[in-house]
Specification:
The complex is a heterodimer.
Chain A: H1 2-22, H2 28-49, H3 56-76, H4 80-97, H5 111-135, H6 145-173, H7 175-201
Helix pairs in contact in A: 1-2, 1-7, 2-3, 2-7, 3-4, 3-5, 5-6, 6-7
Chain B: H1 3-95, H2 101-128, H3 131-136, H4 138-149, E1 157-162, H5 169-188, E2 195-201, E3 205-212, H6 219-225, H7 230-241, E4 245-250, E5 256-263
Helix pairs in contact in B: 1-2, 4-5, 5-7
Classes of the chains: A mainly alpha, B alpha+beta.
Chain lengths: 208, 266
């Protein structure tokens, strides 16, 4: 479907534009998010220019988790978790780089890495919700950028977790089903980037 | 690959995605509702606490005022009367022909001491319980306060009152105490040479302005560090009792202006 081929790209660019326009006024945690969006634009361009593009995936996943971990580290500061998050990100990054030592694995979708990332990000999102409930420091959640980011990540990773796990299996059985499956992924990716744009748009001066 | 298996995998996969998305949406909805409920409970609790604190403070102020009134009356009526009687007796002794010149000197001295003590008692009594306020209202009470404090400042205390309506006594007393406290601060801490008090009536509120030319202070820093003395805390508390907005403008070396906006009940 042509729409699902270009609409996600448009939304990543939209989120990137918002991030670039508001970068100076963003909180440090959201600057990591803006950097993640800029990186995703770069990945989109590279992966459309070079095919097959599965070799980008381990690096993309590693950098994505790195930026998200650093963003949540800021939000959780100064809890114990925020001190352990860099170690988790480093271990995840090291494990991701292992993919590049075996070129054969780069020809397939790295299901383990994406599944692990999904679980880790969902864990961070749930911990963020728990923190918000426990501290009750935020009166208007709709004005809290990290809430929108967390909702986007929760929807994206919980919806995609089956797709990530089954992608290699499905493509072996049916290419048509695999394409339909990635259409669902494209829709969730659009939702995620729309919510990234909302989070980057919310003004820090009016949100508390 | 056979079609039924393909369909089965597709159904399984897409229903899994849909179930996960529904679970995620349900979690977000639960989180939003639960968070809103907790925030509203927290707000309700805070409102109750603020109301309770205000009530407790009103009770404390009322008790303090009653006690001040009692002590003021006792001082004026009991000790004041006794000293007046003593002064009269001293006057009789002064008029007596049997006293020697040396004794006359002592009597005059004692009369002067008693006279000063009587004046001190009147001042203390007036400070404790402003009878002028109860009898003649806020305008006269502020003018009287300015007269009493005038000599303490090199350039005196100026009072300007434009008040068309009578205020409830509790409100008048609170405003009087605020001015009293600010004049006291200007004298004790600011080493001011002049204090200007203005009470102006606006359509829906009263504006009380008290300005001094003293040394000033860093109000923002004191507020941030929560180091304000009892006077400043009492000022904030009395303003909150009046539901008034308190603005303090003070720059080190350039004096202090305190503005209090009191809403008028219709």
């Amino acid at each position: 479907m042509l729409f699902l081929e270009y609409a996600p790209l448009f939304l990543v660019f939209a989120a990137g534009t918002v991030g670039a326009l508001r970068f100076r006024r963003l909180e440090p945690a959201l600057r990591y998010l803006a950097c993640l969006v800029f990186f995703e634009i770069f990945v989109e361009i590279v992966s459309r220019a070079i095919t097959p593009n599965l070799f980008v995936l381990p690096a993309d996943t590693m950098v994505e988790f790195g930026f998200l971990a650093w963003m949540y580290r800021r939000a959780f500061w100064p809890s114990v978790l925020s001190r352990w998050l860099p170690a988790v990100a480093v271990v995840f990054g090291a494990a991701s780089l292992v993919s590049y030592t075996e070129p054969a694995t780069l020809l397939h979708f790295n299901t383990v890495q994406r599944f692990a990332e999904s679980l880790l990000v969902l864990g961070l999102v749930l911990l963020y919700f728990y923190k918000v409930i426990r501290e009750l420091a935020i009166k208007h959640l709709e004005r809290e950028p990290l809430f929108w980011v967390s909702v986007g990540l929760l929807l994206y990773f919980s919806g995609n977790i089956f797709i990530f796990v089954s992608s290699n299996y499905v493509i072996q059985h049916s290419k048509a089903l695999s394409l339909r499956m990635w259409d669902v992924h494209a829709m969730l990716y659009m939702a995620l980037n729309s919510l990234y744009a909302v989070a980057l748009w919310i003004s820090p001066s009016t949100r508390k | 690959m056979d079609k039924p298996l393909d369909q089965e995998i597709a159904n399984l996969l897409f229903s899994g995605v849909v179930v996960m998305l529904l679970l995620a949406l349900a979690l977000v909805a639960f989180f939003l509702i639960y968070q809103r409920k907790l925030v509203s409970q927290q707000l309700a609790l805070q409102t109750i606490q603020v109301a309770y604190q205000k009530e407790a403070f009103v009770a404390a102020i009322q008790a303090e005022e009653r006690e001040r009134q009692r002590i003021g009356n006792d001082l004026h009526d009991e000790i004041g009367s006794s000293l007046s009687a003593a002064k009269m007796l001293m006057a009789q002794l002064e008029d007596s022909t049997s006293t020697t010149a040396k004794e006359q000197e002592v009597v005059v001295l004692v009369q002067s001491i008693i006279g000063n003590s009587l004046q001190d008692i009147r001042n203390i009594s007036q400070n404790l319980h402003p009878a002028v306020l109860a009898q003649f209202g806020l305008s006269q009470a502020l003018q009287n306060l300015a007269r009493v404090c005038n000599d303490a400042f090199a350039n005196g205390v100026a009072v300007h009152v434009e008040l068309n309506t009578a205020l409830p006594y509790a409100q008048e007393l609170a405003l009087y105490r605020i001015v009293q406290e600010l004049i006291n601060n200007a004298l004790k801490h600011a080493q001011a040479s002049q204090v200007v008090v203005q009470l102006l009536q606006q359509p829906h509120h009263l504006v009380l302005l008290v300005r001094d030319d003293g040394c000033g202070f860093d109000y923002a820093r004191i507020q941030a560090s929560n180091q304000g003395g009892l006077g400043l805390k009492s000022l904030v508390a009395r303003a909150s009792l009046l539901d008034a907005a308190l603005h303090v403008e003070s720059v080190a070396g350039q004096g202090t202006t305190v503005r209090i906006d009191v809403p008028l009940s219709d």
